[in-house]
Amino acid sequence: MDVYEAVDSRRAVRAFSDEPVPMDVLERVLAAAARAPSSGNLQPWQLYVVTGEPLAELKRRATARAQAGDPGDEREYPMYPAELISPYLDRFSAAAAQRYQALGIRRDAPDRPMRIAALNSEAFGAPVVLFCYLDRTMGPGQWADAGMYLQTIMLLLRAEGVHSCPQVMWTMFRRTVSEIVGADDDLVLLCGVAVGFEKEDAVRVRTGRADLTETVRFIGP
Q: pTM value?
């Protein structure tokens, strides 16, 4: 798979099979991803790879919280700006409607937030979840580095025939995650990434992207 194909086929999969991802694949991907850009070569990320019984226990605890209507732990950073404006709000709303329609969750369903949280806390059935942390002393530049690192991982996973789904949702249950992975208080959870093979009968959702003219300006001849 060339890099264009990897980029084009990468999408947030929300229905994984229980087929395990071979450990040698994960190790190969993560070793190669270490070459991701890093300003000053700080390599600020701390990654925890959770599988097997530890992951099953994490899913049980997080799902119990979600089904109980737990609003989650105090946020350490906002998922989105307090007030999204157009065109960002338009893109967000369109993608959310498309995504949750595919999951069979109506927009007006009274239990919609709980059902969404419960699906996320199961990592959509993924057999592997990566948890990316940064030291609290790091700044916006290092958070950008971590984003490039995670994108590199997700593209390399596609080269191995594996799918993924980044999940900021895990920050809602960050204390539960920390209990399982043993992350100390000097670290802040950026997100989780569900990893696995897509279910054969999964409903495939491909959200649209803005036209190039909306997001790119060419300066010069």
A: 0.91
